[in-house]
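Task: complex structure prediction.
Instruction: return structure tokens for all chains below.
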Amino acid sequence: MSMTLYHGEPVGPSLTVLAALFESGVEADLVRIDLGLAERHNGAIPLGFEANYSVEGEGPVLVVDGEALTDSVFIGCLLDDLAPQSGLRPRDPYARWEMMAWCRWVIERLAPGAAALANLAWTTPRLAALDDAAFDKLIAPIEAQDLRERWVQTRDGTLSDDHRAASEARVHEAAKKIDDRLADRHWIMGEFSLADLESYAWIAPMRGLLPAAFEGKERLAVWMARVAGKPSVVRAMEMTRTNEMAGSFAPGPEINRWG
Amino acid sequence: MTSDVTLYHWEPNANSGKPMLTLVEKGVPFNSHYIDLLAFDQHKPEYLAINPMGTIPAMTHGGRLLNESTAMMEYVEEAFPGPAMMPENAVDRWRVRWWMKFLDQWLCPSFSMIGWSLFIGPQVRERDPEELKAAIDRIPLPERRIAWRKAIYGLFSEEELAESRRRVDFGIGVLEQALAKREYLGSDQYSLADINLFNSAYGLPSMQPDDVNDEKTPNLMRWLRAVARRPAVRETWTYSRVPRFAERILPLIEEAA
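Output:
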């Protein structure tokens, strides 16, 4: 099985997959791409339908024997299937159900809000600095119409008041949900799992953008330090090349279209 | 039937049909508890005492509660013996999970937005306005409250409906291509992804006969008949109480038999 992971800077979905890969011990070639400049679509990666229509938006891509795989949590499940001793998923079916339901919440509720705020702060200025022709060239190969539209919206930096309020509310909700969850445990599932990586990868970049969501949440702060200290996360973070998050974000999952 | 599994469900389609068909395929006995979605049974105190999220379906296994229909399917697959509903190969398993996500978050909400705007919304709006308002106010999850308000009062914008129609039309083509490539959705083996899709797509040939038929979508039709032929599908429809839904699937089941 030959594997190449195309990843961005180690935040958001790229952090989840890099750390999950290191936890699993599975071997893969690592290739850094700039997700924020749509390098995923520049023709070097053999994107198939599933990669072009990834619900996660612009996350990392794991190419396995020529097939492009996306969506961090499912790549994490794949790594756990390949290396069942990794501990990325609990073994008990009920705990697994709980973990998958938790991760779904992160992807559907937190990630769209966090991505919108992060893009506005870091990605919009990068894209706005490009002239129209350069930008059009970047997004021309993007197959999914709705994803291409999210790139245009990201460049314009237009976030309605409602969308911003909803995005901020989700970060607040996630911070509270994690803090509450940790009342009787060190890790989200009791033992360390993919749920910690996926939650940390989306919530951690919000600390600088929306500090109010983190105020008074001691358990959340201690857990974030705990996740940041995991050797797999340390190893991923050592791959950081920029002092800013600028190269890390790109249009993420769309906000739920129906409520 | 004595079982420590109880499934709280509405009609055996869409989200309710997902864990139900999985249970039947695996041969897991369960107690059926019909929750009438259109009577808002799912937001009544007796149901909220079981599932505080107020969503359907929910399942109890022993003393444990499960909700979130796709995660429930994987639980049923892993917690009980019976025929495997997930492929062995790790990349096939990834593809099955990917398709379920694509259906849950991208395609099926468009099916249901159209379904609600055309059929269910107008029917529900005939009820007493005060009763409807009270029913909405009882919904525990704020995001579900917003979704129900839009559905009940028909508040979908023309842009939202147009985007849903685009996704359904595009999605039909995508499914045809995927099923031309593999015998089932996501792998060559019948799996949870097929259960997921069938429960939302069985009505396509009767609802959109000009788009889904043997000439335009031969692989989608082949697949629909292959799934409809399964005894487990027939069994789940014995739990239906709303003739309008059964009328849409029974001809497909009869034709496929």
